[in-house]
Amino acid sequence: MGSKNKLKRFRENETFDNVFQPSREELVEGNFELKGHWNEKVFKNNNPLVLELGCGKGEYSVGLAQKFPDKNFVGIDIKGARFWRGAKTAVEDGIPNVGFLRTQIELIQHAFAEGEVDEIWITFPDPQIKYKRTKHRMTNTDFLQKYKSILKSDGVVNLKTDSEFMHGYTLGLLHGEGHEVLYANHDVYKQEGSPEEVTEIQTFYESQYLLKGKAITYIRFKIK
């Protein structure tokens, strides 16, 4: 994407009511006004709050928001030029129950209060296969504890990926640490019983993976 196009998207993001871009300092120093008040200040209701981490272009966040109008969704990514597409679609189509937050996932507990979130989706994260990249895997022990700090006591996490490595690594970690695996499927489009929200909503890259015959895996779990 050209730099002019990126700058145009950054500027347009600043005009969208559904895009929130706090600075790192604002978050770390505890000055982010939406922490603990997302439903009250953004969505103006008490519906369940659901996050998509590493939301990319925002297709999944928007798709979930359309499928579940009685829930509130926040897509999170550090790359605003990417989620511009989802934010713009939500504005143009009048989808009120989805917003986008530009920040790093490791700062998640600074953007949401303890027990504020009902559910988390992690869709097609970089599997960070090299051992030295373990600390960047979005389902490692440190990240799970960050998620636990903002989830309600009965909150759940969903992982959808095309990476057999990420699927296996996460399952092994969950079992090893005693977390509760609610559902696991290594090929959601071929096995019956897959949840509708897993198979009915697809990202652009997911549709490309499927065309290549790649299996899409899914895990739903609770962090203990």
TrEMBL record:
What one GO molecular function would you report for this record?
A: tRNA (guanine(46)-N7)-methyltransferase activity
Statement: the UniProt record of this protein carries the keyword Transmembrane = no
**Is tRNA processing included in the keywords of this UniProt record?**
yes
Pathway(s) = tRNA modification; N(7)-methylguanine-tRNA biosynthesis
Which enzyme class?
A: transferase
Write out the residues that bind S-adenosyl-L-methionine.
52, 77, 126
Q: Where, in this chain's numbering, is substrate bound?
A: 130, 162, 203-206
Q: Any idea what job this protein has?
A: Catalyzes the formation of N(7)-methylguanine at position 46 (m7G46) in tRNA.
What is the designated name of this protein?
tRNA (guanine-N(7)-)-methyltransferase
> What gene name is listed for this protein?
trmB
